[in-house]
Amino acid sequence: MEIQENQLQESWSDTASNSSSTRVGRSGPLSGPLVSNKKTSSKRSARFKEEEYVEITLDVRDDSVSVQNIKGGDSETTFLASQLEKRHPSLGSQLSFRLRQVSQELKRMTSSQRFDKFDRTKSGAARALKGLKFMTKNVGSEGWSEVEARFDDLAVNGALPKTRFGQCIGMKESGAFAGELFDALARKRGITSASISKADLREFWEQITDQSFDARLQTFFDMVDKNADGRITEEEVTEIISLSASANKLSKIQERAEEYAALIMEELDPNNLGYIELYNLETLLLQAPSKSTHLATDSRVLSQMLSQKLVPTKDHNPIKRCGRGVAYFVEDNWRRIWVLALWLAICAGLFTWKFIQYKHRAVFDVMGYCVTTAKGAAETLKFNMALILLPVCRNTITWIRSKTKLGGVVPFDDNINFHKVISVGVAIGVGLHAISHLTCDFPRLLHATDEEYEPMKPFFGDKRPNNYWWFVKGTEGWTGVVMVVLMAIAFTLAQPWFRRNRLKLPKPLKKLTGFNAFWYSHHLFVIVYALLIVHGHYLYLSKDWYKRTTWMYLAVPIALYALERLIRAVRSGYKSVRILKVAVYPGNVLSLHMSKPQGFKYTSGQYIFVNCSAVSAFQWHPFSITSAPSDDYVSIHIRTLGDWTAQLKATFSRVCLPAKSDQSGLLRADVGQGDNKPRLPKLLIDGPYGAPAQDYKMYDVLLLVGLGIGATPLISIVKDVLNNIKHQKDLEEGTVDSDSKGNRRKPFATQRAYFYWVTREQGSFEWFRGVMNEVAEYDQDKVIELHNYCTSVYEEGDARSALIAMLQSLQHAKNGLDIVSDTRVKTHFARPNWRKVFKHVTINHPDKRVGVFYCGAAGLTGELRRLSQDFSRKTTTKFDFHKENF
Asked: How far is Cα 179 from Cα 247, in angstroms, rounded to an integer?
């Protein structure tokens, strides 16, 4: 008989079954029509250059099949056809199965020879090997022994339930995807039960860890092709898109799954057959551009040479190795070292001076080294209590770093860290002073003989103190005790565990922690300084006014700090701003656009303090400015991380309305649009204040790295660089903007900027969507290189993100938009390889100094700093690392 299309179509509808077994024989998922008689069709599939046929004549008798004739094909075709010549106990139940299997293999073989739209060239093979990996480092590739051990722990009565399959193979976080993978693997083997044996699991494991691309592609196809007919319909594509989006936490893609399924069908099914097949999927995968690596344009030779340079070399001489480490440390931290050394030297000098002074006084004969220790500690305490105010004089520091060159020798970026270091010095001074007095000096005085007490009468009176309470109830005593208590409260609540609510405390105690508790407790310093002055005036052992030096230490710092607070109060009073736009974005982010106060000038990277009386009349909180200096408004983006920001968001959300279809955000309030103007809360701002990121104009090349909401100060820099590009074009065209005085704005040095934004949530890209699109539109010379990373998506090459990558390529090629960020900037998956990032910048900019500016969680700080140091020492490109206090 001749195998024709209609006969095969009928046979495909049959399925061999065996009711006595849990395994059901099914046709292979690659089955499809062997003969395609479509010569009259006006449209030809792009898959075929010309129509070809393979005709097989079979002789079917009883339970045997023999091949009578083969027309077309080659030796491999003959071999496949010969597989039909086998005897079967039940030909009726197996014939259709064998025909479908062979026809599929023939179709796959001939199609791979005819289709020239893709190839298995070196580049294509390289992409294939990197794609569709079911087992990657993200889900665990420990090997069969670990999987077997987990099977023993998770199995129920010797069988592994489907619900625990993902956990067993290392896909614990992708339960739904693992469930579909289980179904596909079980369907392939005819397993209908909801659990598998260890032997079945071993087969599953071998298939999903198969390094062959064809095997991985087949497995993925099986997941989509749920009815195992060798065809994928639009409904099945929609379902797998929803599954992939869910596994990668991409809710917006999940909502538009039908739209994206239609896009895939439009691309892969041009003849409107209503289905696609394996080779279509393979085409899409192999042709998808794989340009997420940042070295696509780099010279291969330069890259290899640089890699060899950066190979760590270990010096076997411990002295040389240690010496080199010390030299590198000093080179990187010399500004911090000399400031700390000077501070420690002053503290040590003051302690020694007082220690020696009291050692030669009569009181030493009674109290001994306890009094010398107490007085030495007191002298350092007075110095540190004066010094600790200077790092928080923000106006002064901003003026010094902006108007002088002291920033080259003084690490102003570390002002808060230095403030914390001094607080440790204060704590040590308080401890030595209080413990020495309370546990040593006072008991010794109480137990002194009359002869020993005689020299003490001018200080403690003619009558000896009769008990310990005498010392505590005196002015010197109670002021000291109250100060210690208040300092302990402020010091404790300033620790990150309390300030950031990291401790799991009962609800009543939970209210005593958080930023509000830190803010209010820190303002107890007003009482502490008042008590310190009183305590320093009423001294037991110093009666002359010029020897009571506490006020001398504190006078200038307190006056300077008081002047700072006065300036802030006056300045914020007339810097009441008008709110222009409010938007609430996914990820609990509030965006505020405000009018720019008259005379308000700032630099990108700086920050302002914000006060909202509707939330708290006293609290001021710092936020980075996200607008550019040349914008006619001031904008900030606030993420809800604490109690104050949560109340602020709730306050503004009440006056917002749901965003329209052409607007970004979840809720919005645009003042000036429409007749119904919302009544918005009043805001006060104070600033701007200096920050590490404001030094970006010093560098020709910028490497900007932001994590989550940490992108806020860097977005301002990107916008400023973009405005500088526009200004340069205006200069070339002769249409240059001038300020109110007629002065032309000077372009700055930055010639290239690399911006890497890493975030967990897809919705985060809405925060700065406008900026991204604006850069893509105006930056024709590619001065700004933008890289968005979504870490909720599995790395490129993982089977769970394979379909997302395919969709991304199609959408970007057709509409110029990225499906993840909905901007013109393509989003990368997982986390960046930071060494490759630095390598990319180094190759592109030899003999340049690159400013690395990072704002985000502290976890990445060490790696970026080490890479900056490593590349600076071993290449001609020098990286200066700056960490924003976040």
From this structure: 11
Cβ distance 830 to 796 under 8 Å? yes
What is each CA distance from 524 to 552, 565, 581, in whole angstroms?
Answer: 22, 15, 37
Calculate mean pLDDT across residues 552-558.
92
Pick the CATH number of 576-672+679-690 from 2.60.40.10, 3.40.640.10, 2.40.30.10, 2.60.40.2890: 2.40.30.10
Strand pairing report for 784-790 and 752-759: parallel
In 3D space, the residue among 884, 816, 684, 870 whose CA is nearest the CA of residue 307 turns out to be 870
Residue, of 744 and 773, whose pLDDT is higher: 773
Q: Is residue 226 a contact partner of residue 218, using CB atoms and an 8 Å limit?
A: no
- Per-residue pLDDT, averaged over 374-397, amounts to 91
Query: Tokens for 879?
Result: 């990286």
Closest CA to 791 of 832, 753, 755: 832
pLDDT at 295: 40
pLDDT of residue 19: 36
Name which of 721, 810, 827 is nearest 769 in CA terms. Answer: 827
Asked whether 583 and 690 are in contact (CB, 8 A), the reply is: no
Indicate the pairing of strand 607-612 with strand 589-595.
Answer: unpaired
Using a 10 angstrom Cβ sphere, with 0-12 exposed, 13-18 middle and 19 or more buried, the burial of residue 383 is buried
What one-character DSSP code corresponds to residue 681?
Answer: P
Top-level class of domain 131-224: mainly alpha
Q: Residue 758 in 3-state DSSP?
A: strand
End-to-end CA distance of the chain: 78
C-beta separation of 683 from 594 below 8 A: yes
pLDDT tens per residue across span 401-417: 878 888 778 888 888 88
Alpha-carbon dihedral sign for residues 89, 90, 91, 96: negative
Query: How do residues 485-531 score in pLDDT, each as one tens digit?
Result: 999 999 988 888 887 777 777 777 777 777 778 888 888 899 999 99
Q: What is the CA radius of gyration of the chain?
A: 37
Dihedral class, residue 856 (left if φ above 0, else alpha if ψ from -120 to 50, else beta): left
Indicate the domain borders of the chain: 131-224, 336-569, 576-672+679-690, 692-734+747-791+831-885
d(CA 875, CA 886): 30
State which amino acid sits at residue 30.
L
Q: Which residues, other chains included, contact 159 with Cβ-Cβ below 8 Å and sequence gap of 6+?
A: 193, 195, 196, 197
Partners of 499 in the β-ladder = none
Residue with tokens 């490109």: 877
Q: 867 or 85: whose pLDDT is higher?
A: 867
Half-sphere exposure of 43 (CA within 13 A, CB side): 7
| Residues in contact with 320: Cβ distance below 8 Å, sequence separation at least 6, in sequence order | none
pLDDT at res. 355: 92
The answer to whether 390 and 343 are in contact (CB under 8 A) is: no
The C-alpha atoms of residue 727 and residue 629 are separated, in whole angstroms, by: 13
Confidence of residue 138 (pLDDT cuts 50, 70, 90): very low
d(C-alpha 141, C-alpha 54), whole Å: 43
Give the chain's mean pLDDT.
76
Q: What SS3 class is residue 398?
A: helix
Confidence of residue 532 (pLDDT cuts 50, 70, 90): very high
In Å, the largest CA–CA distance within the chain is: 132
- At residue 423, what are phi and psi to the nearest 5 degrees? -60, -35
3-state secondary structure of 755: strand
- In CATH, what number does 692-734+747-791+831-885 get? 3.40.50.80
Nearest C-alpha neighbor of 753 from the set 722, 728, 777 = 722
Is residue 255 scored above 80 in pLDDT?
A: yes
Q: Which long-range contacts (CB under 8 A, 24 or more apart) does 858-864 make?
A: 860/705, 860/707, 863/834, 864/705, 864/834
Q: What's the residue count for the chain?
A: 886
Give the closest residue to 399 by CA, choosing from 563, 167, 570: 563
pLDDT for 251: 82
